[in-house]
Specification:
The complex is a heterodimer of chains A (about 220) and B (about 230).
Chain A: H1 10-37, H2 41-55, H3 73-80, H4 82-100, H5 108-132, H6 137-163, H7 169-205, H8 207-213
Helix pairs in contact in A: 1-4, 1-5, 2-4, 3-4, 3-5, 3-6, 4-5, 5-6, 6-7
Chain B: H1 4-10, H2 19-36, H3 39-56, H4 61-85, E1 91-94, E2 101-103, H5 104-130, H6 133-142, H7 147-176, H8 183-214
Antiparallel strand pairs in B: 1-2
Helix pairs in contact in B: 2-5, 3-5, 4-5, 6-7, 7-8
Classes of the chains: A mainly alpha (about 220), B mainly alpha (about 230).
């Protein structure tokens, strides 16, 4: 769910831009380091970004009737880590605003924060924690995608409640949570299942690649 | 097709206009619209930018409507929601259902948000419908956005269209085999589609890297900038 152009008042646009800028700048620094070490990885990053964009143009079958699309953030975060995913998500969101009229330029900062930072960070943390707890990577990737997706919407609710604190921040937050987060639970489960299907295929066909990225559970490697 | 906007951006009367001008005009208008938060100004911006898009850039009315309709449904729902469920203070209208009321505050929120978005959408539309992405990225590069972002962006932009073609082919193949017949098969097909695209994308990235290397790629893609004769 992208916050659309002009939806947020100016002060919130600026605040989210500043917060996102710091994280994305760190991500750029990380990417620069990776590219300096292995120059071939630039093409891989670009193509992964394109994959994220294309994934978001697919329609996810949804139980509730509303249509939604997978974000691919969970997958990206599990594979590349949150800092790199934040940069890729920034470019993807810019493209979505200009090519598809999803989201907007003034709300870009807010959207980067919820979709490019909170979602991937949560997904990555969940994934790493479950792998450490000796779960199989399939289970871990499901919860990473599911919680990453859900927390993205929770973050969006927070942003909207902060911008529209009527009558108070708390009651606005609970209303936005009911609308955005609760209705998104089935969609988040859908995204989790889809990510698991993708993950299983990857494990089957390219186990060496996943091993090289160091993302598999120790016993599976 | 969903990529109408990219085609339009390459084929309209303002494609060759200075992209810096278009970029700055859009950003300044957006910021001013947000900062003023004035209903009259929103309407004026909406009307002027719509005229610019339709009459000067000569973009078909249907395409422009399509562009507006994408966010419009969501906008209307959220604004109705703002009007009926948010707010405190003086009650103006009581629906008498479950104590849902419209208050002065909530009406203010709903109307101002609606008009603000209406003012901002044509500004975004002006940039999105008249300027190709490659030009925007080139502008950003000269404005000191890190080179690595621009490069990844450009390579990404190229790959997106290749993937979309492949997805189209695959989806049609799956559909003819009843791949989207029921809920479970849809998930299976979609999962298969996405993972195949990911595996393809890995191969593609290798090919892309080889082709870049073989043409002497050293971290920069020089772009030919045609001189605009009218300037």
């Amino acid at each position: 769910m992208h916050i659309m152009e002009g939806y947020l008042p100016l002060e919130w646009c600026i605040i989210w831009f500043v917060i996102s800028f710091i994280v994305v700048a760190y991500g750029v620094y990380q990417i620069k380091k990776i590219v300096d070490e292995t120059p071939e990885s630039k093409a891989l990053l670009a193509v992964s970004g394109a994959f994220m964009f294309v994934l978001s143009s697919l329609k996810l079958p949804s139980v509730t009737g509303s249509c939604s699309h997978p974000c691919g953030n969970g997958l990206g975060a599990a594979l590349f880590g949150p800092a790199v995913t934040a940069v890729l998500a920034t470019i993807v969101l810019l493209f979505q605003a200009i090519l598809l009229a999803h989201g907007g330029l003034t709300t870009l900062g807010a959207n980067i924060f919820s979709m490019g930072i909170i979602g991937p960070v949560v997904a990555w943390a969940v994934y790493k924690a479950l792998i450490k707890a000796n779960m199989s990577s399939t289970v871990a990737v499901f919860f990473a995608a599911f919680l990453g997706d859900l927390l993205t919407y929770v973050a969006t609710s927070f942003q909207l409640a902060l911008a529209f604190p009527a009558p108070s921040f708390g009651s606005a937050l609970s209303k936005f949570l009911v609308i955005f987060a609760v209705t998104q639970v089935p969609l988040a489960i859908g995204e989790g299942i889809l990510t698991v299907i993708i993950w299983d295929r990857l494990k089957e066909y390219k186990p060496k690649l996943l091993d090289k990225l160091g993302v598999l559970a120790p016993k599976e490697a | 097709m969903k990529f109408d906007m990219d085609y339009i951006a390459h084929n309209n009367a303002l494609t060759e206009t200075n992209p810096y001008f278009k970029l700055f005009l859009t950003i300044i208008l957006l910021v001013v619209t947000l900062a003023l938060d004035n209903l009259y100004f929103d309407v004026i911006v909406f009307i002027i930018m719509s005229i610019v898009i339709l009459a000067i850039a000569k973009i078909a009315f249907k395409s422009y409507l399509k562009f507006l309709s994408i966010p419009m449904a969501f906008l209307i729902i959220t604004c109705i929601f703002l009007i009926f469920f948010f707010g405190s203070g003086e009650v103006i209208y009581d629906t008498k259902i479950l104590g849902i009321v419209v208050t002065k505050n909530s009406l203010h929120y709903g109307v101002y948000t609606f008009m603000r978005v209406m003012g901002c959408l044509p500004c975004l539309g002006f940039l999105a419908l008249t300027t190709p992405i490659a030009k925007i990225l080139h502008c950003l590069a000269t404005l000191k956005v890190p080179k690595i972002i621009i490069e990844i962006g450009l390579l990404m932009y190229n790959s997106i269209f290749i993937f979309l073609n492949e997805i189209d082919t695959m989806q049609k193949a799956q559909q003819t085999r009843l791949g989207y017949h029921s809920y479970t098969t849809s998930f299976k097909s979609l999962g298969g589609l996405a993972s195949t695209i990911f595996l393809r994308s890995l191969d593609k990235s290798e090919t892309l890297q080889h082709s870049l290397d073989s043409r002497g790629y050293d971290g920069e893609l020089p772009v030919y900038e045609p001189k605009n004769r009218s300037n």
